[in-house]
Amino acid sequence: MSFTVVDQAPLRLNRSELAVPGSNPKLFEKAARSAADVVFLDLEDAVAPDDKPQARKNIVEALNDVNWGNKTMSVRINGLDTHYMYRDVIDVVENCPRLDLIMIPKAGTAADIYALDMLVTQIETAKGRDKRIGFEMIIESALGMANVDEIARASKRNESMHFGVADYAASIKARTVNIGGPHPDYGVLTDPDAEGARDYVWGDPWHYALSRMVVAARAAGLRAVDGPFGDFSDAEGYRAAARRAGVLGCEGKWSIHPSQIALGNEVFSPSDEEVAKAQRILDAMEEAQRDGRGAVALDGKLIDIASIKQAEVLVKKAEEIAAA
Ligand code: GLV
Ligand code: MG
Fold first, then answer.
1. Could you write out the DSSP letters of every residue in 175-208?
2. Nearest CA, atom 2, ligand 1
3. Which of 43, 96, 131, 216 could join 152 in a cystine, given CB atoms 3.0 to 4.6 angstroms apart?
C-alpha cells in the first residue's frame, strides 16, 4: 500500500440513479416509490429556461413534502456559466434539510467545485444545517475530462463522479447514434481467414473516457457511476452497457426512464453465487491465518490478497443491499 491514505466517500448504494425533471411534479411520487437508490431532481437540461423558476419551487416543495424514504436525494443544478445556478443552490440548500447531494453538471475545472464548496459552506453555516451536502460531479466535456483528477480532489464534499456521455459526445464532436450506445463505425476488421472471410467487430467508443473517469474517481476515493443510455426501449442494450461499466469499475448507472431502474439494480447487485463464493474466499483465508499459512488455495486456484480485497468489497456491497 502507498503511504498516502485516500479517504473514502461515505457509503451509499448508487446502483441506479433516477433522473426526474423538476418541471414535472407529477413524476415525483412515483419516483419516491421506485426502487432507485438515488433520485436526482433536475433543474438543468431537462428543464426549459422559462420553466426554471417554477421547477425550483417544485423541487423545494417536493423535498419537504414527499416521503422519499431512505433514498439518497440529489438536485442537479444549472451550470456555473448560467445565471440560474446561484439561485438553484441558495434555494435548495437553504430550504431543504432532506437534501443529501448536489449534482454539478459540466464540471470543467477544480475551481468550479471550489466555488460551489464556498457557496454551500456559507449557506450551511448561516442556516445551521445538520446534514452536510455532498457533491456528485458530471464529467461531460473535453475540459472536464482533461482536468478529471483535479476535479475529483477539489473538495471534501466530493462523493461521486458520473460519465455524462451525451454532452461528452457533443463536446468532443464525436459521432453518435444512440446516447451511451455503440457506433457502427467504431470497430475493427479482422484479417481474412483461410477462405478470405473477414469479421467486423464492434468496439466500445466510450471505453477510454469511462475508464479514465473511473481511475480519477477511485484514486480520490469517490464512487464512479455511468451516465445515461438513451434508448429506453432497449433493455438488453442497457444491460450490456451497464455490465461493461461494472467491469470497468462503475458501481451504478443512471436511469433516464423508470424501466431502467430494475436493470441497474440487477446488474450492479452481486448475485447470490458471487456472494457465496466471496464468503468462501474469506472463510478459507481466515482458516489459513488460524493455521499460520500465508497462501491459500480454493477450488484449485490460488487466492491472494487482491482476491481477498475483492471478496470483501463484494460481501460489503451485499450487506449494504440487504440493509437498504
Ligand atoms: C448527462 O448529463 C449527459 O450529458 O450525458
Ligand atoms: Mg449532460
1. --SSTTS--TTSEEEPPP-TTS---EEE--TTHH
2. 164
3. 216
The Å distance, Cα 139 to ligand 2 centre, comes to 9
By the 8 A CB rule, do 141 and 208 touch? no
CB 140 near ligand 1, within 6 Å: yes
Residue linked to cell 448507472: 253
- The arithmetic mean of pLDDT across residues 56-74, rounded, is 98
What pTM, to 2 d.p., does this model score? 0.94
Three-state SS at 75: strand
Domains of the chain: 16-269 (3.20.20.60), 273-323 (no CATH)
Tell me the C-alpha distance between 12 and 252, whole Å. Answer: 11
74-83: b or e for each residue (b if 16 or more CB lie within 10 Å)? bbbbbbbebe
* 20, amino acid identity: V
Packing angle, helices 52-65 and 85-95, rounded to 10: 20
CB atoms within 10 A of CB 64: 12
Q: What mean pLDDT do residues 205-218 have? A: 98
What residue type is 108 in one-letter code? G
